[in-house]
Design brief:
Elements (H helix, E strand, L loop, with lengths): L10 H11 L8 E4 L4 E4 L3 E7 L5 E2 L2 E2 L5 E4 L3 E4 L8 E6 L3 E2 L9 E2 L4 E2 L13 E2 L13 H6 L5 E6 L8 H9 L2 E3 L7 E5 L14 E2 L4 E3 L7 E3 L6 E2 L3 E5 L4 H4 L7 E6 L2 H14 L3 H4 L2
Parallel strand pairs: 13-21
Antiparallel strand pairs: 1-8, 2-7, 3-6, 3-8, 4-5, 4-7, 9-12, 10-11, 13-20, 14-15, 14-21, 15-18, 16-19, 17-18, 17-20
């Protein structure tokens, strides 16, 4: 229908946050990028933070990422600027209640569709929480899960559909170079600064469907990684595609972060995704 996938930029952190509060893994939560916010709970709640550390405090008490807590009625949760990656997720038992759009609770910011009034949250917005069905039990992420989520500056990719358009020297340059994430990056695309990759014969292509994580190379030669609010079609050649098992790492990249690319086979990409899904398959495997 021409609407990109949207949703969590770091889907694994959202899944883990929901697991910590006893929700189904795809329950609606709040995504914060680089800077947090202040949240008041008039009726209390069971909540958890997952993803990056935003220095959260519940009233005057420090709140750890990756641990569920019980918020008493009237308490205030405050989050500041990030201390690690790009995004933190606030999950609440019962989830955030919003009307579904295209079977999704996510907000597609660029088009103003879905979520809470089709926009980012503003000061004094009031969100409703679904019914809490479980009593509070402190839950914490298992150490091996935290280790799996550690930042990885080498992104694994498979070959793109137009790989043969690029000479061997340009392919070598792409895989040997270090790229820096541009300040111009957003949920539509992660723009990279570094070695420019050009097509020697300047071939033109017919617009075609594009996938999440595709690495496009526009005429200027600076690669762009298509992200969760990407356009659904594109006419730039794609030299590579970030593997599914590394999508969550894209969501934690900040402007000026440096990355490299590592080529893997499709079979390796599938094995890495299966391994990751087994790791996240149940509460018993995620929690201590």
């Amino acid at each position: 229908m021409g609407v990109s996938i949207s949703g969590a930029a770091d889907p694994i952190s959202l899944r883990i946050g929901n697991c910590l509060v006893g929700n189904p893994e795809n329950t609606a939560g709040l995504e914060m990028t680089l800077l947090g916010g202040t949240f008041v709970f008039p009726e209390g709640a069971i909540v958890a933070l997952a993803g990056s550390d935003f220095g959260a405090r519940l009233d005057d008490a420090k709140v750890d990422v990756g641990t569920s807590i019980e918020v008493d009625p009237g308490q205030t949760l405050r989050l500041g600027p990030t201390r690690s990656g790009a995004r933190c997720y606030l999950c609440v038992q019962g989830g955030i209640v919003v009307p579904p759009f295209l079977h999704s609770a996510s907000t597609h910011i660029l088009s103003g569709l879905g979520g809470f009034e089709g926009r980012a949250l503003r000061s004094r917005d009031v969100l409703h929480i679904g019914s809490a069905s479980k009593t509070f039990r402190k839950r914490t992420i298992a150490p091996h899960i935290s280790e799996h989520l550690l930042p990885r500056k080498v992104l694994r990719v498979t070959s793109g559909p137009q790989l043969e358009w690029f000479s061997q020297s340009f392919q070598h340059s792409f895989y040997s170079a270090t790229y820096r994430l541009s300040e111009q990056s957003d949920r539509m695309g992660l723009r990279l600064e570094g070695a420019r990759i050009s097509q020697p014969d300047h071939r033109a292509m017919i617009t075609e469907g594009v996938s999440l994580g595709a690495v496009q190379v526009p005429p200027a030669g600076s690669p762009i990684i298509l992200f969760v609010e990407q356009q659904t079609t594109g006419g730039y050649p794609k030299i590579a595609n970030v593997i599914s098992a590394d999508f969550h790492r894209l969501g934690q990249l900040r402007p000026r972060d440096e990355i490299r690319f590592e080529l893997v086979t499709l079979e390796a990409a599938q094995s890495l995704l299966i391994e990751q899904e087994k790791l996240l398959a149940s509460e018993e495997s995620i929690l201590e």
